[in-house]
Amino acid sequence: MPDYLNSLIRAVEDADSSLRLQEAVKNLAASRLEGAIPTLIASLSYNNPGAAVAAVDGLIQIGEPAVPALLELLDLHNYTARSWAIRALAGIGDPRGLVTLLGAATADFALSVRRAAAKGLGMMKWHWFPEDLLEIAQAEAMDALLFVAKEDDEWVVRYSAVVGLQFLADAVATNYPDWRSQIQSQFEQIAAKDDSWAVKARVLLAQQHLQKQTVIEQQHNVEDSPSPLSSMDWQKIMEGLYGRKGQERQVFAEGDPRRYEKLAVAIAENSDD
After folding, report:
1. Which fold would CATH assign to domain 1-92?
2. pLDDT tens per residue across span 94-114
3. How far apart are CA 247 and CA 120, in angstroms?
4. Is the pTM of this model over 0.90?
């Protein structure tokens, strides 16, 4: 297996054309080996969108082991690599990416990043959250998604926010049925006011899904795998939340990415347990 992985990595490093690089990264991503993570991460910085897409797909397939390296990439000044990293975090759904996705969905200047982050917020691995953090985390996600669904200038981003809200409505159906009803009510308003027929159609699809989906069905679909995160992971999330305070706006609108002090406090309390 090491020889196989090394040959895939060498193919990426030795690629002498754009097409060969795309193919090499695609093959490396298909291996789904944790040892491929550093090279896939590096591929996000290349000026090659095809290779970056393949790398993102591979990192999503690898999942949780790729998250620490993706979070490190967010601290770099290479915006292109950072935007691809956010898309990978959105696809993985790891709670360590929650704060990043909240900010990206509501404030990133690239519509492709906001779109991915909005969908990712709805598909977070909520079953990993400690019970005392789940409510506040889902509340923040719902506020952000409702803000994006109603206020974003780009219809493709609002469309993805509707998708995220549909998944979130399923996730809160058992514990917070009132929130599910609130989302359904907001769907009615969006359907009446949005000027995009694509968004209206996606809202209709979401409404039909929620009408058919019962709480019992949702319970059967919930993953029960335990969270691999440690108290140190939650501490890092808290530090990230407080680090955003220097970028606060004068007035916080609903869904503003810097409205997370309560969540930070709750995470801090949980990390001390």
Report:
1. Leucine-rich Repeat Variant (1.25.10)
2. 999 999 999 999 999 999 999
3. 23
4. no
